């Protein structure tokens, strides 16, 4: 099967379809994961200030580049603006410069607002637009924005987002957000593409996996790729990393796509619904102070 392993964003930048996520890893773990991933052919690495491991990712990037004789432009590096830095133009710019230092690079390929922090994201976006214009980010986007957030952002933005990174897997589809992004040429990217592994033993998924001689994880990733998503599964093991990349040599048919789609419960995989980050009456400051918004 001859299939491109990249997508083209609305500004013309190409982005790998499969990357490595490093949430919930220490700096030391992230460093080793990133270096191992690069050796296994990964070119997209996704981190965030909130993860607390940007310095580890930066070290892993340098090691991976040196050991594999690659250049910085061979990689696609993503990080995100911390919620506590949002809402003040100068603070966003200053905090992002510190992020670049930790990542040991003078630019990122994609910079995202980590959450639509209530009454702050439009001012934060203004900073991202200038970061983009200055060449410190090759593309800019958002995470976890729904239709209301995106509509409001587009009403104020000079530059439309290139990417919206949302939770998407067989258990949570967010169809309204997906349709809006597709209709507005905003690339969708799936975090938690394996849904915390909650459906890896599901008989529907396992039966399809057995048919193709693939793992359940590969089937779920393939299901997302065929819907146009970029995916960033997390793995600390070299063999699993290789497995997660080996998803371009088979294709699910329409019945299989529908069978997996029917597993939808519209349930977030972790903790999502208890946080009122998008407009809470208690005040967003309390949530930021408690670092409860990842």
Report on this structure.
The structure is a single chain. The chain is α/β, with parallel strands linked by helices and 294 residues long. It has a single domain (15-289), classed as TIM Barrel (Alpha-Beta Barrel). It is 39% helix and 13% strand. The protein is built from 11 helices and 10 strands. It has helices at 27-39, 54-67, 89-103, 121-133, 147-156, 175-183, 203-212, 216-225, 238-245, 254-261, 284-289; strands spanning 6-8, 14-16, 20-21, 44-46, 76-81, 110-113, 140-143, 163-167, 187-191, 230-231. Strands 3-4-5-6-7-8-9-10 form an 8-stranded parallel beta sheet. The protein has a two-stranded antiparallel ribbon with strand order 1-2. The longest helix has 15 residues, at 89-103. The radius of gyration is 18 Å and the shape is globular. The relative contact order is 0.14. Residues 278-285 and 287-294 have low confidence and may be disordered.
């Amino acid at each position: 099967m001859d299939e491109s392993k990249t997508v083209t964003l609305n500004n013309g930048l190409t982005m790998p379809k499969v990357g490595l996520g490093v949430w919930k890893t220490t700096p030391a773990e992230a460093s080793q994961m990133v270096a191992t991933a690069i050796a296994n052919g990964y070119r997209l690495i996704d981190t965030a200030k909130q993860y607390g491991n940007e310095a580890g990712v930066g070290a892993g990037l340098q090691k991976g580049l040196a050991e594999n004789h690659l250049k910085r432009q061979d990689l696609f590096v993503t990080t995100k603006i911390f919620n506590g830095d949002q809402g003040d133009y100068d603070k966003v710019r200053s905090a992002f410069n510190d992020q670049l230092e930790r990542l040991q690079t003078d630019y990122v390929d994609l910079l995202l607002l980590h959450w639509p922090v209530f009454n702050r994201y439009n001012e934060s976006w203004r900073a991202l637009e200038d970061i983009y214009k200055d060449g410190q980010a090759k593309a800019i986007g958002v995470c976890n924005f729904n239709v209301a957030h995106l509509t409001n952002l587009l009403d104020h933005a000079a530059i439309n987002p290139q990417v919206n990174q949302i939770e998407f897997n067989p258990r949570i589809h967010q169809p309204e957000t997906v349709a809006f992004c597709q209709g507005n040429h905003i690339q969708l990217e799936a975090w938690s593409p394996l849904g915390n592994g909650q459906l890896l033993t599901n008989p529907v998924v396992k039966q399809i996996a057995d048919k193709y001689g693939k793992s359940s994880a590969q089937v779920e990733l393939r299901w997302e790729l065929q819907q146009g998503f970029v995916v960033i599964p997390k793995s600390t093991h070299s063999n699993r990393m290789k497995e997660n990349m080996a998803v371009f040599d088979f294709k699910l048919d329409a019945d299989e796509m529908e069978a997996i789609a029917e597993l939808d419960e519209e349930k977030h995989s972790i903790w999502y619904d208890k946080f009122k980050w998008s407009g809470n009456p208690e005040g967003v400051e309390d949530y930021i102070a408690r670092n409860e918004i990842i």
